[in-house]
C-alpha cells in the first residue's frame, strides 16, 4: 500500500469516524491552544539541570487533541521529515489511549521524546496545520508528541519495536547522534547486526554534548538509547573511526555497509583580532566542557571559566543554549550579540522567549570586530560594528551592512563564539574515494544517501552542514531503506 492509502485506511477505521462525528469542527477550532507549563523564570535562570518546559498534564493533552480535525489530507504530515502519522497519534490521545499514541510515534521516529522537545515544530508540522488557514493557532503537535512519549516512559511500559529475525549481516554506523541512532534503529528492525562506533565516551552526539539538560535531560536520551540496545544494537564508545579503526579494518571485520553520521562539530571562528585571548572560546568547546565533562563543577580537574559579563556571538540555537548556560552559571550580564535583527534569528522562537524571560540581553545589529585583552592576556573588552539591514541575501534574510564609523565598545570577561559549524573532517579525509564538497560535507545521492563509495552511506550534519535533529533522523531512515534494498538486491 502507498503511504496515502495507509493514511486513508487508518482514518476510516470506525473509531476514528465516530470520533470525528462526536464533535463539530467549529467546536474543535474554538478550543484555545494549550499553554505549556514552565519553571519560574527567575528560579530557572540559576538552575542548570532542571528542565524549563514541564510538559502537559493528561487533562491538557486530552483537550488539545480535540483541536485536531483529523483532516483527510493531513497537511501537518507533509511538514514532518520522518512522516509521523500525526492525526493517528493525536486521535489516540483524544480517546485516552496514550500508549497507542506512543506506539504510533515509534513507527517512524526512533526518538519521539527528544523530537517532542527540540524539533522546530513551528517551522515544520505546525507550520502546515489547517488551523493557520482559519487564522487560528496550530494544533500543538510537538507538545502532544512529548506528552505521549513521556507518558509511555513514565508508565514503565515502554514498547520495544519488533525486530525481524537476525540475518547475520554486519552494518557499521559512525557516530551516535540522531542520524546514527535513527539509522541503527531502522536497521535493527530489519534484522541487521548493527554496531555504532562513537568517538566520545558518551552516546548521543549533540543531544548529549550540545543541547543542555535544561532543554533536553540526558536521562530522556538514555531511555531512548536503551530501547535501541534492547533491539540488539551494539555501541562501542571511545572509538574514533579513521584513527582507532580504519575503513579497511571495518571491511576486514566483515561489515557489509557503513553509515557515516559523524556530524558537524568543527566550530567556525570569525578570524578577527583577539580571538586567541584567554576567555574567548567556541560554543562547541564551552557546551561540551560544561555538559559532557562537568567543567562547571568546582571539583572539576579542568574547570571552565565562569564569566560575569559574557557575550555570545550568534543568533542560532547553539548561541541561545550557550548564553542561557552562562546565565545559569552566574553571569550578571549575559548578552547575545547578533549582526542582523531579531526577526532574522535562526533560533527557535521559544528559545528566544525563554532567554528573554531569564534576563538575557539582546544586542542585535552589532558585529564584533576586535577583542581587547588585559595585561594577563584575558579578554576585557570587545569592539562592535553597528549594522543596518540591506537587501535579502541568498538565504532570503536581509543582509547586514556596516554603518560607517558607528563603533561601540563593551566590557566583557568571557566571549563565546557561536557563528556556525563545519563538518568533522576525519571521515571525509580517511575514506579514500569519498566525494567531498567545497564545504567539507560528504556528497550523496539525495534519494538514497549513498556516497561515491558504494558501501558507504551518509546523513545528518556531515552531509548537510549544521541542520536539525529531525532532518538528521530523516536521513538515517532514508539510508536504512536504501542500504537494505541494495544488500537484498
Ligand atoms: C548546542 C546545539 C543546540 C542545538 N539545538 C537544536 C534544536 O533545538 N533543535 C534541532 O532540531 N537541532 C538542534 N541542533 C542541531 C542538531 O543537534 C544537529 O543537527 C544534529 O545533532 C545532527 O545530528 P548528527 O547525527 O548528524 O550529528 P551529531 O549529533 O553531531 O553526532 C555525530 C556524532 O559522531 C561522532 N563522531 C564524529 N566523528 C567520528 C568518528 N570519526 N568516529 C566515531 N564517531 C565520530 C561525534 O562524536 C558525535 O557524537 C543543535 C545543535 C547544537 C550544537
Ligand atoms: S493539519 Fe492540523 S488539524 Fe489537520 S490533521 Fe494535522 S494537526 Fe490535525
Describe what this molecule looks like in 3D.
- The chain has 489 residues and is α/β, with parallel strands linked by helices.
- Helix content is 36%, strand content 17%.
- The protein has a five-stranded parallel sheet with strand order 3-2-1-4-15. The chain has a five-stranded parallel sheet with strand order 6-13-7-8-9.
- Helix 7 (86-94) runs antiparallel to helix 8 (98-108), helix 8 packs across helix 10 and helix 11 runs parallel beside helix 20 (469-488).
- The chain starts with a helix and ends with a helix.
- The chain binds flavin-adenine dinucleotide and iron/sulfur cluster.
- Iron/sulfur cluster binds next to helix 6 and helix 7.
Mean pLDDT, nearest integer? 95
Percent of residues in helices: 25-40%
> How far is the N terminus from the C terminus?
21 Å
Q: What global shape is seen? A: globular
Q: Name the CATH architecture of the largest domain.
A: 3-Layer(bba) Sandwich
CATH superfamily of the largest domain, called what?
FAD/NAD(P)-binding domain
Counted up, domains total 3
Number of strands: 15
Structure summarized in a few sentences:
The chain has 489 residues and is α/β, with parallel strands linked by helices. The chain has 20 helices and 15 strands. The chain is 36% helix and 17% strand.
Notable characteristics:
globular; 20 helices; binds flavin-adenine dinucleotide; binds iron/sulfur cluster; five-stranded parallel sheet; FAD/NAD(P)-binding domain; alpha/beta; Fumarate Reductase Iron-sulfur Protein, Chain B, domain 2
